[in-house]
């Protein structure tokens, strides 16, 4: 069963009109096309509709036919929902998605479950819980240093918290050397994401010299609308590093200002995570 047909089934069982079912989330004309499977629904809109109607996410996904011709679309929706939950540090939602996938008939679901485990353990600050087998699977999957491409950058950015400091530092430098001059905005976004992660890892290991080097590298990536969020986070990290070397109030003020900005643009959970990082490294 497709997303559209399953939404229609849930709506009819609830005895609601399409307008009552969707509230103000999407337009009635757009939603009508979703139920007819003539257009796609974004991950964010789908999850809002499910929550608006008090539908259990795991139950909904367990009823989808992952063997249908739209399997690729469904997998993309799962990944998109997972990333959204990750940035909100919503462990319960990530676990619900994982359970739904485990109960589904989706092909090669082990790969999706592996990705969800990495997101759950990272969001829960417990990367050590990933098994040695899973870590080896990640190593086999995410990185081929002779053939770095956009997909390998994405995988490395997502999984680098599960590897040792030296490997992460070596790979990060190789990636930057190869892609620092890229004009592809998607590549630039991923490179900055990797640098941000490496800075966080360096701070955790009290390796401020490497963290400073990563900051300098990040400044070579141009600021664009697509990299603006990353640059906001980097500004915070740069001031946190500066405070380590010279504990001036201005650096703390800059960090606090950026935390507030992140909260104002809707990244409340992420801003709280940043505040925790500041507290841990300034007290």
Automatic annotation (TrEMBL):
Pfam families: HTH_3 (PF01381). Transmembrane segments: none annotated. CDD domains: HTH_XRE. InterPro entries: Cro/C1-type_HTH, HTH-type_regulator_Rgg, Lambda_DNA-bd_dom_sf. Residues 26-60 form the HTH cro/C1-type domain. PANTHER family: TRANSCRIPTIONAL REGULATOR-RELATED. This is HTH cro/C1-type domain-containing protein.
